[in-house]
Amino acid sequence: MEPINSIYFFIMLLACSVAILLYRYTITLRRFLKSFIKISKKVSNKEFHSRLDNSIKGELGELSRNFNFMMETMENTIEEVEYKHLQLTSVLKSISHGILVIDIDGNIILINDEARKMIKSKCIGKEEGKNIKQVIHVEKILNGIEKYIGSKENNCEKLKLEDETVYKLKIDPVYLQNSKNAIIGSIINIENITEIVKLENMRRDFVANVSHELKTPLTSINGFVETLIINEDLPSDKRNRFLAIIQKESDRLKRLIEDILLLSSIESKNNLVTENVLLYNIFKEVYEMISYIASSKHIKIYYNFEDENVAIQAYGDYIKQLFLNLIDNAIKYTPEGGTVIINQFTRNNEITIEVIDNGVGIPKEDQDKIFQRFYRVDKARSRSVGGTGLGLAITKHIVNSLQGNISVESKLGEGSKFIVTIPTKIS
Ligand code: ADP
Question: Using CA atoms, how far apart are residues 394 and 144, in angstroms rounded to an integer?
Answer without folding.
Answer: 41
